[in-house]
């Protein structure tokens, strides 16, 4: 991933957990291996690629201390159960205006959290309910039973619905929209976050060097998003889903923990600024360029940096499950999805009739398509970026068959053969193809490469720098 292109950014991975063996055989290296073939983070990448948020400022100095990271782990929920330690400290969130009566309290766990017109309500282990007042967000920390010892005394992680979470959580309700729903944001050290990303992104049996390369990419992505979010005054740095990097919570996977420790503080920069260190499952032998993958208009400045533009390199992902793939759709299905996507995105594809041909208009230095030309039976021509074509072809439309592994456009590197009543697609790889290819990392590690050598191929010209 991760990678992130947010669908919603009110507040990229940027990914974790053990994978079920049956699905590992299908899509090893993907955050969603448990779900046949997941819609990777790159499936939502187009949203941020068309945003107008400026690039992050230069990171020209080292960071004196390990940064923290705010990770949204639940969105717009109505209730959550919090367990773990026997005692918690609950207090008004930092920066929240409070009345004298709204002071920190110690409560017995496990606790149930709800919200409503009277504010956030917490029911403790003894059935005692406490209301905290409308408009008041809360921080919840593990405690040793005293208010002043809460931050460091307990060794037990918080457990949110059984999911181990490092650090502390903030409960933030949607006060102006629907106070009965709230988000849960976990704040934790970056190095505590990363093992929970690595275990979900890579297969546990893969070589440690691949995990180390993933750690450097995921750390860079998270820190770059952190800088952007805080520069924009947002309350959340990253999501825990494929909108950024999938995060499972505290991870005990040894190879993930060791890879994080071995690469502590190492990041990727260009001209003094952290890059958005995109990664995907399988490049299919041809990497993509960030400046052209997601939009035919003007991309974000961060997508134009040189290390994110494709250069020819040796491929190592030939053994990946989707190195080459073929699917077939009905022409009617294909046309309806493109039109529906056009309506959703405000594109003139809404008037598309029947497609006569889909051809590659231009390619990047590595030979991967940069732009497709879609010509209709009326002679009208449309231009689409690779990830736009992939998203449009996979667009959900009521009444049409659901998108599955068998009929999915797995990448934007395709050859499309249009027939009278069907569309045949011959594709390469799985994912957007920008930056690190996870299956190539596996192959490189097996050939003896270390993480730095891999990184220099995935992000040509990048500066590898220790930030803290």
Query: Strand pairing plus helix content: what structural class?
Result: alpha+beta
Number of domains as seen in the coordinates? 2
Query: What's the N-to-C terminus distance?
Result: 23 Å
The helicity comes to 10-25%
Largest beta sheet: strand ordering: 4-3-8-11-12-1-13
Low-confidence stretches: 2-56, 149-155
The whole-angstrom Rg is 23 Å
Please outline the major beta sheet.
7 strands, mixed
Overall mean pLDDT:
85
State the helix count: 11
Find the count of extended strands (DSSP E, 2+ residues).
24
| Proportion of residues in β-strands | 25-35%
Shape from CA axes? globular
Features:
single chain; 468 residues; alpha+beta; 2 domains; 7-stranded mixed beta sheet; 6-stranded antiparallel beta sheet; 11 helices; 27% strand; globular
């Amino acid at each position: 991933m991760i990678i992130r292109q947010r669908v919603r950014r009110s507040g990229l991975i940027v990914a974790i957990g053990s994978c079920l063996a049956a699905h590992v055989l299908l899509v090893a290296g993907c955050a969603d291996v448990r779900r046949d073939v997941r819609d990777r983070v790159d499936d939502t990448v187009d949203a941020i690629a068309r945003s107008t948020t400026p690039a992050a400022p230069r990171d020209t100095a080292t960071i004196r201390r390990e940064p923290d990271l705010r990770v949204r782990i639940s969105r717009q929920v109505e209730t959550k159960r919090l367990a773990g330690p026997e005692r918690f400290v609950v207090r008004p969130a930092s920066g929240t205006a409070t009345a004298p009566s709204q002071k920190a309290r110690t409560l017995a766990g496990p606790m149930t959290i709800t919200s409503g017109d009277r504010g956030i309500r917490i029911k403790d282990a003894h059935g005692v309910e406490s209301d905290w007042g409308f408009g008041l967000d809360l921080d919840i920390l593990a405690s040793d039973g005293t208010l002043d010892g809460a931050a460091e005394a307990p060794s037990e992680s918080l457990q949110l619905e059984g999911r181990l979470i490092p650090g502390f959580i903030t409960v933030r309700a949607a006060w102006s929209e629907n106070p009965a729903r709230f988000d849960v944001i976990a704040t934790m050290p970056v190095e505590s976050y990363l093992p929970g990303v690595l275990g979900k992104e890579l297969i546990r049996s893969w070589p440690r060097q691949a995990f180390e390369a993933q750690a450097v990419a995921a750390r860079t992505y998270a820190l770059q998003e952190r800088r952007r979010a805080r520069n924009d005054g947002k309350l959340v740095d990253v999501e825990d889903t494929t909108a950024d990097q999938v995060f499972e919570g505290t991870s005990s996977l040894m190879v993930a923990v060791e890879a994080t420790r071995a690469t502590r503080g190492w990041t990727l920069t260009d001209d003094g600024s952290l890059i958005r260190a995109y990664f995907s499952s399988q490049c299919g032998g041809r990497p993509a360029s960030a400046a052209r993958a997601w939009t035919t208009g003007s991309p974000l400045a961060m997508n134009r940096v040189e290390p994110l533009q494709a250069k020819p390199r040796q491929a190592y992902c030939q053994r990946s499950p989707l190195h080459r793939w073929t699917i077939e759709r009905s022409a009617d299905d294909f046309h309806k999805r493109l039109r529906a996507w056009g309506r959703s995105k405000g594109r003139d594809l809404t008037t598309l009739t029947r497609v006569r041909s889909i051809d590659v208009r231009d390619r990047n230095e590595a030979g991967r398509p940069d732009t497709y030309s879609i010509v209709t039976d009326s002679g009208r021509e449309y231009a689409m970026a690779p990830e736009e074509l992939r998203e449009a072809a996979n667009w959900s439309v009521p009444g049409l068959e659901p998108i599955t592994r068998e009929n999915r456009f797995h990448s934007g590197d395709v050859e499309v053969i249009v027939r009278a009543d069907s569309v045949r697609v011959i594709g390469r790889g799985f994912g957007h193809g920008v930056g690190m290819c996870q299956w190539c990392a596996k192959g490189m590690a097996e050939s003896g490469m270390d993480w730095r050598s891999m990184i220099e191929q995935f992000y040509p010209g990048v500066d590898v720098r220790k930030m803290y």
